[in-house]
Structures are given as structure tokens and as C-alpha cells.
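ESCALATION

Customer reports they have been waiting on this structure for their group meeting. Please prioritize. Original submission:
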Amino acid sequence: MAQAVKMMTNQGSDSGTGGGMGFRPPSFLERPTAWVQDFRKFLHDVRNEMGHVTWPNVPEVRSTTLIVIVTIFFFGAFFFVVDGAFGRLIQMILSKYGRS
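Update from on-call: job pushed to the front of the queue and completed.
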């Protein structure tokens, strides 16, 4: 019985679910201003998070750039050799079994 009374008293209240008498959609001017406020809050949060970033110094950037360049040349040479080997293998197979 107590649950039924509790449910009946909560039906008319606006509990944030959008079903009460206190709910009203944003008016014509509230939507653009809410968007601007949300965007300003977003920019503020971005600025705060960028303050937490640890930026690398110049020697760290140089060393990691050098590592990237050396790695690119290594993989370029590796794939050049592998491509040549597979190309020759396929040519041998096609020359032996390709034409009768």
C-alpha cells in the first residue's frame, strides 16, 4: 500500500525525465546561446588538457625523427629485396610451367 501511495505522489513531480509539467523545450534564443556556451566550455577544457601535456624537447624530437628515418630506409630496402626475390620466383615458375 505504501508503494502505491509513493507512486501516486511522484507521478506529478518533474524528476528530470521530461514527463512533468515543469518540462519545456528550449526557446528560440536558448538553443544558440546554449551551443555557444557548450563550445566555450569545450575550448576551455581543451586548453586545460593541453596544459597537462608533456611536450618533448628538441633533442628528443631529433632522436625520434632520426629513428623514424632510419626505420623507413630499412623497411624500404627490406621490401625492395623481398619484392625482387618474389618477382624472380614468379618469373621462374611462369617460365617453367606457364607455356607448353
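Sent to customer with the following note: The chain has a mean pLDDT of 82.
Escalation resolved.
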